Each structure stands twice: as structure tokens, then as C-alpha cells.
């Protein structure tokens, strides 16, 4: 019984994403670029690509990397990018005891400000994730398009796959760290421009709650590959 509860929490929370924040309105020509895991040695390269295209982005940073790179945190904020939380430990929620997950959810680089977002590492959920997020006044922020920049594929191939999945309102997941990501980002931005889609910050998208029907579609996409 416990195993089924744990499995259901991860499948419904991560794969379906029911009740979490996901894509924005499909009626507006906007998309959101998001980067997990930074800041890193790759952050300035990503910022340079974004600046060339006059594109804002949202960075989900981790506590250790934020503490190690205060200069990059300041640079990101100064350039107008949105800073949100990716936690303290980059582990799936199922591998964290409740007290660690509570600390994971409470940390945020913009502590004390309203509308704070949290993106769980790997999107993973434990049975306690949603309750703890509510108590910590955090909103779970997921995505609908993966750049898959952790794969050993060319930037062109990754960009083609990413752009095939993009729709108005999409939230694109990329990572601050892989060597391929700056080139991939440039190709994605070029493709978005050709489609008449404009990158915006997550707070300007804005993200919407993932309803039942969209959750079913996410489940099919997750397990129907």
C-alpha cells in the first residue's frame, strides 16, 4: 500500500503534474525559456546568447551554486532575468526524508517576496511534496517541453526536436551547465522568431494550473514514447 502511494504521488505529481503550474495561455504568442541547476561556468555564455536576441529567461538555481557564485546571481538579476528555486539538494524528492524536503522547499533566492516558485529536481514528487509546498507558500512550476540537453546529441538535432514540441504558451526546460546548451539556445531562439513566438519571463507568461485533461496528455507523452 505504501509503495502504491509513493508511486502515485510521483506519477500524478511529476508526470501528470495535476495542480502544478504548467504552460501559459495557448492564445498568446509567448513562450518561456527556463534553465535549471545553475548558476555555473556556462551562465555568462547563456546570458550572452539571450542578450543577442533580447530575450529574458527564468533561472531555477540551487542553493550551493547560488552561494558559490554571488556575482552571477547579481548579473542575472541585473540583466532582468527571473530567479527562482531549484532546491538545496539535487535529488529526487523520494530520496529525501520529510525534514530535508521541508528545507528544500523553504529555501528560495528571493526569500520574502511573493509568488515564489519551486521546481523540484527532476520534477520528482514524494507523497508530502504538495502539502509541504503549500505550507511553505511555494508554487510547483513544471514545464511542457524538454530541450534534452543532457543527451549526447548535436545542438541542431536537439533544437529540431524541441521546436517540434513548442506551442504558444510553452515552458521550455533547459539546463545551465551542459556544453551544448548555448548553441542549442541560439538555434531555439532563431526558430521561435521564425514562428512569431516571443520569449517572456514566467511571471509574464503567466503559468497556469495543469488541469485534468492536460494532465492526461502529459501522462500519455511521458509513458507513450
Short structural summary:
The chain has a single domain, classed as Alpha-Beta Barrel (TIM Barrel). The protein is of the alpha/beta class. Helix 1 packs across helix 9 and helix 7 crosses helix 8.
Distance between the termini: 28 Å
Radius of gyration, in Å, reads 17 Å
Total count of domains: 1
Structural class: alpha/beta
Q: What percent of residues adopt helix (DSSP H or I)?
A: 40-55%
Break the fold down into its secondary structure elements and pairings:
Elements: H1 2-16, E1 21-22, E2 30-36, H2 43-52, E3 58-61, H3 63-68, H4 70-78, E4 82-85, H5 98-106, E5 117-118, H6 129-135, E6 139-140, E7 145-146, H7 155-165, E8 171-175, H8 181-194, E9 198-199, E10 208-209, H9 212-223
Parallel strand pairs: 2-3, 2-8, 2-9, 3-4, 5-6, 7-8
Antiparallel strand pairs: 1-10
Domain NodB homology: 29-200
Pfam families: Polysacc_deac_1
InterPro entries: Glyco_hydro/deAcase_b/a-brl (IPR011330), NODB_dom (IPR002509), Polysacc_deacetylase_ArnD (IPR050248)
Amino acid at each position: 500500500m505504501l509503495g502504491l502511494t509513493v508511486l502515485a504521488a510521483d506519477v500524478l505529481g511529476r508526470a501528470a503534474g495535476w495542480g502544478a503550474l504548467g504552460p501559459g495561455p495557448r492564445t498568446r504568442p509567448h513562450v518561456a525559456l527556463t534553465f535549471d541547476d545553475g548558476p555555473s561556468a556556462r551562465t555568462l555564455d547563456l546570458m550572452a546568447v539571450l542578450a543577442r536576441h533580447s530575450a529574458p529567461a527564468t533561472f531555477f538555481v540551487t542553493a550551493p551554486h547560488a552561494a558559490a557564485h554571488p556575482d552571477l546571481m547579481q548579473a542575472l538579476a541585473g540583466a532582468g532575468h527571473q530567479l527562482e528555486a531549484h532546491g538545496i539538494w539535487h535529488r529526487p524528492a523520494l530520496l529525501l526524508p520529510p525534514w530535508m524536503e521541508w528545507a528544500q522547499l523553504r529555501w528560495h533566492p528571493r526569500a520574502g517576496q511573493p509568488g515564489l516558485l519551486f521546481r523540484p529536481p527532476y520534477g520528482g514528487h514524494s507523497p508530502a511534496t504538495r502539502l509541504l509546498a503549500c505550507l511553505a507558500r511555494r508554487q510547483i512550476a513544471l514545464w511542457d517541453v524538454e530541450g534534452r540537453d543532457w543527451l549526447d546529441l548535436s545542438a541542431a538535432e536537439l533544437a529540431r526536436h524541441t521546436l517540434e514540441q513548442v506551442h504558444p504558451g510553452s515552458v521550455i526546460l533547459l539546463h545551465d551547465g551542459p556544453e551544448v546548451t548555448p548553441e542549442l539556445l541560439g538555434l531555439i531562439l532563431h526558430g521561435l522568431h521564425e514562428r512569431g513566438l516571443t520569449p517572456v519571463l514566467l511571471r509574464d507568461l503567466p503559468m497556469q494550473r495543469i488541469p485534468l485533461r492536460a494532465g492526461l496528455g502529459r501522462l500519455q507523452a511521458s509513458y507513450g514514447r
